[in-house]
From TrEMBL:
Protein name: CAAX prenyl protease 2/Lysostaphin resistance protein A-like domain-containing protein
Transmembrane parts of this sequence: 12-32, 38-57, 69-87, 99-118, 130-150, 156-178, 198-219, 239-256, 276-294, 358-376
Keyword Methyltransferase listed: no
Residue ranges constituting the CAAX prenyl protease 2/Lysostaphin resistance protein A-like domain according to the UniProt record: 237-339
UniProt keyword annotation of Lipid metabolism present: no
């Protein structure tokens, strides 16, 4: 109760501050710098922020209140993009570069934690399981897009915002509290005590080889698959941005897919005799399909290849998470894999694949699927079941009828 009281006070102060600054911006637009579009946006923003006080209502039995939780979760995560844009405009117009950079730096850090009250007071109180599922995806996409608004000052702040690292950290911090409110156990940061040291060494070697192959193998035919290597970094200009982008993907995608989504799927499939296999394959399928969002930014053939590779990689990542029992292994693998590819290509997008690229991808997909099945079957399955037991996600046992 003490913690919830503090969370409510946090939300109250945060909302009051936003309302105060946006109201000041409205007055500024009306009397000093008249702008019809800005006035309209600011007026709508004031209404949305004012409605956010409604989550302080403790009446959780009302259906109207339940609907409000959905609305406010979306509203609270959507309005900051407009709010920060207003603050950014005011700072750049009325302060010097040093003050602007300092304030924006503080705001950028604060953004990592600012949605904790929303998670506790709105998302955490949503009761419908499918509503939770859909809301989680919606919030994830909002925070991803919102975190990339432009900051026209410090290069490091630009890299932080453009790479979406802040948004992914914010999502991880927020859902840490939300998933606990929904009854899920937060992910472990230590290796499972049951993991085989031999298999762990094999996994480390495989991950290193896979990351090096993804980034530095320049083979364009089967003849050069073992001999054609290029360890040259494509660009130094965007190195910070590419590194943060790879880290953002590693944190955000693994936290969303392996902690949040896989936990949901395992919970939904607790009555299934093939719970583990079905969960990791569905998780991989979803992970692959979300890469369709890259279609507007790269060739369609590249996106289709990426979807297929991501499906297989998602299955492997899920199996790796369940076997090792720690989210850190997944974040590190995902980060290193993406980083190796990005720093050698100089881009976060793919080019049109060749026939050899398709052939090689099919070969890699088969390796991923084979390793994934190895990790969740045989003696390794007992390790997975042991890890799931402590997360409350192990398969329910029923007596034979």
């Amino acid at each position: 109760m003490v913690i919830e009281k503090k969370i409510r006070s946090w939300h109250l102060l945060q909302t009051l501050l936003q309302l105060l600054l946006v109201t000041f911006s409205l007055i500024y637009s009306l009397f000093i710098h008249a702008n019809g579009t800005a006035i309209f946006k600011t007026f709508v923003l004031i209404i949305l922020i004012s409605l956010q006080f409604s989550v302080l209502n403790k009446n959780v039995n009302s259906k109207l209140i339940q609907c409000n939780y959905y609305f406010q979760a979306i509203s609270i995560t959507s309005t900051p993009i407009f709010f920060f844009t207003l603050v950014n405009d005011l700072l750049t117009k009325h302060t010097n570069m040093t003050i602007t950079t300092f304030v924006l730096c503080l705001i950028t850090i604060y953004k990592i934690f600012m949605f904790i009250p929303m998670g506790e007071l709105t998302m955490g109180k949503v009761q419908n399981k499918w509503g939770r599922f859909c809301l989680l995806w919606f919030i994830y996409l909002i925070i991803e897009v919102e975190s990339t608004y432009t900051i026209p000052t410090n290069p490091f702040l630009k890299a932080c915002t453009n790479s979406a690292i802040i948004g992914n950290l914010s999502f991880a911090v927020t859902t840490w509290f939300v998933m606990k409110k929904w009854g899920f156990v937060t992910p472990n940061f230590k290796l499972s005590s049951k993991i085989s040291k031999i298999i762990l060494c094999i996994l480390i070697i495989f991950i290193v080889i896979d990351c090096l192959f993804n980034g530095f193998n320049g083979a364009d035919s089967w003849n050069g698959i073992f001999t054609n290597w290029n360890f040259r970094i494509a660009t130094n200009n965007n190195l910070l941005y590419l590194t943060l982008s790879a880290l953002a993907a590693g944190i955000g995608e693994e936290w969303m897919m392996r902690f949040c989504m896989l936990s949901f799927l395992l919970k939904l499939l607790q009555n299934s005799s093939k719970q583990i296999l079905e969960a990791i394959f569905l998780d991989g399928l979803i992970f692959g399909l979300i890469h369709l969002f890259n279609t507007p930014f790269q060739p369609l053939s590249a996106t289709l290849l990426q979807v297929i590779q991501a499906m297989a990689a998602g299955i492997l990542f899920s199996a790796l998470y369940l076997y090792t029992g720690t989210i850190i292994s997944n974040i590190a693998y995902h980060f290193l894999y993406d980083l190796a590819g990005m720093i050698t290509s100089g881009s976060i997008l793919m080019l049109s694949p060749t026939i050899f690229d398709w052939q090689l991808s099919i070969f890699i997909v088969l390796i991923y699927l084979g390793l994934a099945l190895f990790l969740v079957t045989g003696k390794r399955k007992k390790v997975v079941e042991y890890n799931l037991k402590f997360q409350g996600l192990n398969k329910k046992v029923f007596l034979n009828s």
